[in-house]
Amino acid sequence: MAPKVDYATLSNAVLAQHFMPRIAVPDHENWLAEDLARSAPLRQLPGVGRDLRYGPGQRQVLDVFPAATPGAPILIWFHGGYWRALSKDYYAFLAPAFQSAGAAVVLVNYDLCPLVTLADLLAQTRSALHWVRTHASEMSGSGDRLILAGNSAGAHISAMALQYAASADPAPLAAIRAAALITGIYDLAPVPRIPVQEELRLTEADIGNLSPMHLPIHTHVPALVAVGAEEPELWIEQSARYHAKIREAGMPAEYMCIADRHHFSITRDLADSTAPLTRAMVRLLET
Predict the structure, then answer these.
(1) 20 to 30 A from 155, CA-CA: which of 47, 82, 120, 284?
(2) Residue 194 contacts residue 16 (beta carbons within 8 Å)
(3) Is residue 2 part of a domain?
(4) For the whole prediction, is pTM greater than 0.90?
(5) What is the CATH number of the domain that holds 239?
(6) Model confidence over 225-246: pLDDT tens digits?
């Protein structure tokens, strides 16, 4: 595995340029607004389960896009937003491509920092996995065929789910068949030195305990690690280094650095069933 970047040698301003996507992509609000507009009508389609509650938290709700036939794999999507912004409502546009490929799709909301800690947030998302497994048949899915996926913070959430020991956590690890980690952050070391720390309030212990880069992997499943080639260099470096880590741990893992895509454009490919990123994720449905 490549050596860890020495973030201590970099200024806070440099770290912000590399690890604040909203700085790296000045027109990010346009991308987000378009995603929300594309997603809104899809959430209103017949058969879609909207805002189904999986826990007591204010935002512990999810949307279900059922499969066409019983026993289907279930793609569980965790949204980005640096654990303190956005929601599932921005990502309904990705559901049709995976429904067409034979999957049910679940988009998960969770309470945001600073209302909850990052550790609490991760516990909520593990509760979502339990809910999906329990209610799988209601979406024509199989509770033993869960594919985790997410972008940015959602990729971190999915990676963390792979690294909880079954003896220490009740998450249904045996049901996880694959993971798609898109433009994620896996080493939290830079985060306390950039503006999002005001809301995240990470502690020194959080850096070690909640960084997938530094934790053992307990669920060895096929994985996809994807990042846009137009992301900042150090953001790309984290994806490359995490991919190397899971490969060394024995996971069958694919790495994609996608040309002409940045932090907010890469997920747009998931509306296109012919895009290489979508095709790579569809292959994971077959595991």
Answers:
(1) 47
(2) yes
(3) no
(4) yes
(5) 3.40.50.1820
(6) 999 999 999 999 999 999 999 9
